[in-house]
Amino acid sequence: MEKDSFKIIENFQFRLFLVFGGILLIFKLFLPGSNLIIYRVVSDFLILATISFLFISLIVFIERRKVSPISLIMNIGILNAFVFFLIMFSESIMSLLFENVNDRLNNPGLVSTGLTLGYVLLIGGFITYVLVALRHLFFLKQSSTQHIYFLTMVVFFVLASLTANYLKSEELSFISNTFMILSVLMMLINSLRISWIAFIVKKEKIALLILSVVIEVLFIVNLNNTGETTVHKMMLSSLSPSLHEFTNIIMLYGAIYFGVLFFTTLFHMPTADVFDRKAEEVSSLQYFSKLITQVLDFNELAETVTDITTRVSSADASWIIWKENDEFVSIANKNIGFVDSNLINRFILEKVDWKTLKETTFLRMREFERKAELSQPYKAVAVSPLKAHGEIKGLHVAVRKNEAKFNDEDKNAIATFSDYASVSIENSRLLEESIEKERLEKELDVAREIQKKILPSKNPEYENLEISSLFVPAFEVGGDYYDFFEISDSKLGFVIADVSGKGISAAFIMAEVKGIFQSLSKTIESPRKILIYANEILKNTLDSKTFVSAAYGLIDTNEAKMSFARAGHCPALFLKNNTSQNLRPSGIGLGLSDNKQFEETLDEIKIDLDENDTIVLYTDGITEAKNEKLDDFGEKYFTEILLENRNRHLDEISKKVIQEVSMFSHNHSQYDDITLVILKWKQKTKLVSLGEEPGHNRMEK
Amino acid sequence: MAEFSTTLVDKGNISVINLEGYLDAHTAPILESNFTELIDASKFKIIVNFQELAYISSAGLGVFMAYIEKIRNNSGDIKLTNMNDKVYNIFDLLGFPLLYEIFETEDQAVNKFKENDEVGSK
Prior knowledge:
The complex is a heterodimer of chains A (701) and B (122).
Chain A: H1 12-30, H2 37-65, H3 69-97, H4 101-106, H5 110-139, H6 147-166, H7 173-191, H8 202-224, H9 231-239, H10 241-294, H11 298-312, E1 317-324, E2 327-334, H12 338-351, E3 361-364, E4 380-388, E5 391-400, H13 408-454, E6 465-472, E7 480-486, E8 491-499, H14 503-523, H15 527-541, E9 548-556, E10 561-567, E11 572-576, E12 579-583, H16 595-601, E13 604-608, E14 614-618, H17 620-623, H18 635-644, H19 650-664, E15 674-681, H20 685-700
Helix pairs in contact in A: 1-2, 2-5, 3-5, 3-8, 5-9, 5-10, 6-7, 6-10, 7-10, 8-10, 9-10, 10-11, 10-13, 11-13, 13-14, 14-15
Chain B: E1 4-11, E2 14-23, H1 28-40, E3 45-56, H2 58-73, E4 77-81, H3 85-93, H4 96-99, E5 101-103, H5 106-121
Parallel strand pairs in B: 2-3, 3-4, 4-5
Antiparallel strand pairs in B: 1-2
């Protein structure tokens, strides 16, 4: 925006130009004509300064505007034509106004001075513009900046024009001639720096060819019209003879430059097409490689592929056939309607095997019987596979109206774009997958974290109880939950539960279940009542598909009794001596039935505890652990292991169970959480420990 | 991945869904779509035959809970039949026998529906 709002008036050099122009005007108006050398020097200095500042400010202007070379040349042409007329009219107008132009100019009045000044300013502006434009073209698309060449040339120009004027004597004319020759030499050298034409497209080259001829002619004509006896020369010379020389030199430079330009462009013409396409290929390849790393949007990618195909190959239209819900559809159509493309799709799919197409294949529309239905006379078709993951995902189609076949060049271009598109499609698919995977993993991490925080960090300590708990999370959080509630020194509540479902939703329900049991256990002791309240709450909060199986127990150590209720959970195992008993009072899972039915069917049992009686709570992660044959680990085997190891320490029993489960299911991933809580009643612990405590202490000492 | 499939059979005004394979969180949507299909067609008398079902997880059990209320409100029912011991044990643990009528054979379930119809028509 800032560049656009650039105003030449605000430019410092331009202001200087105006100042010097003004001084020149005043100088000429008040001191018209004098043959004093000092007068001529001052006059030339003022003109040189004025033109120099105009030159510099024009350079800034053109570079800021980023004017294209063609429009610069166009401007030179227009100005040339303008100057052509200016020279023509100056001759007749001046002759009309004044009887003897030459005399009049030598002894000028106010009118003639004004006219002369105006004329000189126009010519000065013209040559300055030409010089600036040629300078701009000189530096265009040059890899190494060679200011010195151009600068030297301009210095020679100035020197040649000044010396031609000031050193007129025969003996010294060699100086100005030398500068002149050097100037022309530099013009020739600098005129060869026109590599920028290689970078313009064919259409522009054609325009350039015509323009350069016209401009060349105009330069020569204008140069011819500024000879010795012309009014033009008289007018310029009356102000500054050096300026006249300078004008001629610039025009000569222009003539040489456009001559060279014309021939160079002419020689570029035959290769213009190829060059255009190569340039397009290079730029589109760059675009593609960028696209590959960026693409997230498949539609955007498809549009780019077809767009570039029509631009780079000689195809008139392009689109992609994509398989959507078992239907072939046209997408990203470029220069073709869907009716046409869908018609051609049928033809293509008849001719080409979707699954086995290996490379770009050409088809002739001649063989298509319904080609009369097409709105455009398409003649040739190129079809390339778009592959991702070794599988064809779509077909990239290019068609052309021209009878001539697609050539190898086209084939390569189309194949290249199809390959790039395939890579991009693959990339975007991989990206989507990895994002999804990452998301799931993050989610599971969160779920595991929640679960870890919900489960008790350590087992409570009661004098009559040995307690062991063990939890092995599954990869997907399974929704297992267990907890202990230290109601008083003599009363311990415990719960085990399994939320249906997995992952983060199960983890959140676990959190809710924990809250429910924690608060209920503080005010209610009866396991049955706690479960009834829990059901009431959960029935209202859980969605109809979700439920929680739970078992709640309360051990009163003073009474040596346990009360226990079960809501749809695996039965607890009660180990007494060498026998195992299933504690399975009736009860429906939490959240499954309305409270009336739940209450009616829920039983609570009371059990007297004897020495070494063991209560085992578990979740179906143990009994339903599977081996490679998908057999269950089973309750029977589980019980056997417990009974075999019943005299060992509780933690060892847990370890043993987990060992057996993992050995059993080593070829099958752990599908569900595993929870195992074991409580062992130690009637005599209190007495024994009391009795032994002093001795124990003594031994330690 | 364990496979699961269902087949739908019409027996008069009663629809029978036969289950086969492993019903868990991943395969549950197949059964869900069967239920929604039947409900959309206002077929509320449904028998689910477990003869060929090898395994059911808690998520699989949840499917039955999701639709039962709507079906019963439309004076229909889901009756379960032909469960093997393992599958029955899972239903039993959760107390499903208290919530659903479970029969040994499909015919028993069909008869039960018919009995109810007769009672209803009287």
